[in-house]
Design brief:
Residues about 1-5, about 10-45, about 75-80 and about 145-215 have low confidence and may be disordered. The chain has about 500 residues and is mostly beta strands. The chain contains 5 helices and 24 strands. Helices cover about 10% and strands about 40% of the residues.
């Protein structure tokens, strides 16, 4: 199909002033970010579980801003080429996808995620934005044996972890030689997470000298897990975000082979859970007074991103991912905030990606746009930013509009197809973040120009690796234009 026919086919949207681009950007390299950072914090803590609350709709003190600036790792330090990829498969070309099994984990690859974002409404049109992401990270192969010492170079992250003081629970990993029968097995029921067996008193090490953490568990599957949960309460002007880390059995995810047998997926981290029953996804997460219990049912077909699901992020061979999306999922359920509990409904987006790659030298961050527009048209575009501020040529995206027989028609977008101009900034913590943008395609024949604006300026995740991700509204042409859509934006490297 023509790559210059974006303005046609979005029912309900005028094709004159704005052929509403709906977009969702999924940035594969975020997995690589979390890989190194999460391995570092988990292995160093050697704890079954650690959790942090990032922010709860408040302004930081000057001291907190200064600490954040000095503690936060840079993108280059986290995504350096020194990460251990030996023994993992590389993404070097397209593959044949098979569903539902590809909803499951792919342990041959180093990093993977299940990434949900969406916009919800309660009675009276009260708006909520939500995000839930489950990350899986494979340990370096030499750290997978039962007696291996799991060590990851984390010099650049030491200050960040120390300043943020995550909750650390002492390791309960069984010593080598312990009977497998006495070791807790992975929990198939995310509603109830078993406690690890405590070490016998005779085995306790009372030596005060510190020793490196060691993975010596017969139930440890070679993976570490991280989850992010966030809720934007637009009416209250509050953004709540939480981060958790865990290793099995406190966290796990069904593999592709397991899903092939059962047609169902189950993933969890503590009492946060993500399941797929063959028809719909269910997400349940709670931290204090903030919670979601949501059912998300696909209403659009699976979309293979890039070249038939092969998404290239850099020039080096293997610097790519396998990547697919479900652009629209009808979402129903409940949310809870300090203001109370609300029955909601809305639309969400799911991104699935797995790879073993990292950012290339010179790539310092990305701007990711996920916009669902009127007329059931969607746009996915991510802009990779280079050190000099230029747009990396591997930036890419896709425009989606309804097709025949319930399908969709797609147009792939390159770095030169989209012009993204920040229109307003906000100083948040130690960073200066854009919170409004003019987004347009350079081909004036399309006449497509969108105004994208954050629901709340401060939707910053203040975790181990700070990033901005939040709900946005989309208007036709400019800030006073007609409202034509909504979505999510992610910003890193600011």
């Amino acid at each position: 199909m023509s790559e210059r026919s974006l303005t046609m086919g979005c029912g309900g949207i005028a094709s004159s002033s704005a052929d509403l681009l709906a977009g969702v950007i999924v940035i594969v390299i975020a997995a690589a970010v979390a890989v190194v950072m999460t391995l570092s914090v988990l292995v160093r803590a050697a704890s079954p579980t650690a959790s942090m609350e990032f922010t709860r709709g408040r302004h930081e003190t000057p001291e907190e801003v200064e600490n954040s600036a000095s503690a936060a790792p840079t993108l280059a330090s986290v995504l350096g080429a020194g990460a251990d990829t030996q023994g993992f498969a590389r993404v070097e070309g397209p593959r044949a996808f098979s569903f539902p099994e590809d909803h499951g984990a792919h342990p041959d690859y180093r990093a993977e995620w299940w990434y949900f974002t969406g916009n919800l409404r309660a009675a009276g049109e009260r708006h909520f934005g939500w995000q839930f992401t489950l990350f899986r990270f494979g340990l370096p192969r030499d750290a997978r044996t039962s007696v291996a010492q799991a060590s990851v170079d984390s010099t650049s992250l030491d200050a960040a972890f120390s300043a943020r003081q995550p909750v650390v629970v002492a390791s309960n990993s069984p010593e080598s030689g312990q009977s497998p029968e006495s070791v807790p097995k992975p929990n198939p029921n995310p509603e109830s997470v078993p406690e690890a067996n405590p070490e016998p008193e005779s085995e306790l090490n009372l030596n005060p000298e510190p020793r490196p953490p060691v993975v010596r568990s017969v139930w440890f599957d070679g993976n570490l897990y991280m989850a992010h949960f966030a809720l934007t309460d637009t009416a209250a002007g509050e953004f709540h975000a939480f981060e958790r880390f865990a290793r099995p059995p406190a966290a796990s995810a069904s593999t592709d082979a397991e899903v092939a047998q059962s047609s169902m997926f189950s993933g969890w981290l503590d009492d946060w859970s993500l399941t797929f029953d063959g028809d719909a996804w269910r997400v349940r997460a709670r931290d204090g007074a903030v919670a979601v219990d949501l059912m998300a049912t696909p209403e659009t077909p699976i979309l293979l991103q890039g070249d038939a699901g092969f998404s290239v992020k850099g020039a080096a061979p293997g610097n790519a991912s396998h990547y697919y999306s479900i652009p629209r999922l009808t979402t129903q359920g409940s949310v809870q905030t300090p203001a109370g509990a609300f029955a909601i409904e809305g639309t969400s987006w799911l991104d699935r990606e797995w790879s073993t790659s990292a950012l290339e030298p010179g790539q310092v961050g990305w701007d990711w746009f996920a916009l669902q527009l009127d007329g059931r048209c969607d746009l996915m575009f991510y802009r990779l930013r280079r050190e000099d501020g230029a747009t990396d040529p591997h930036s890419a995206g896709v425009f989606v509009r309804p097709g025949s027989a319930g399908g969709h028609e797609t147009t792939r977008l390159t770095a030169t197809d989209v012009t993204l101009t920040p229109a307003r900034f906000a100083q948040i913590g130690a960073g200066r973040y854009p919170v409004a943008w003019q987004l347009r395609l350079p081909d004036t024949a399309l006449g497509t120009e969108l105004w994208v604006e954050a629901r709340l300026p401060d939707q910053l995740h203040r975790g181990v690796f700070p990033y901005w991700e939040g709900a946005v509204v989309v208007r036709d042409g400019g800030p006073r234009g007609r409202r034509i859509g909504e979505g999510y934006v992610e910003l890193t490297g600011y």
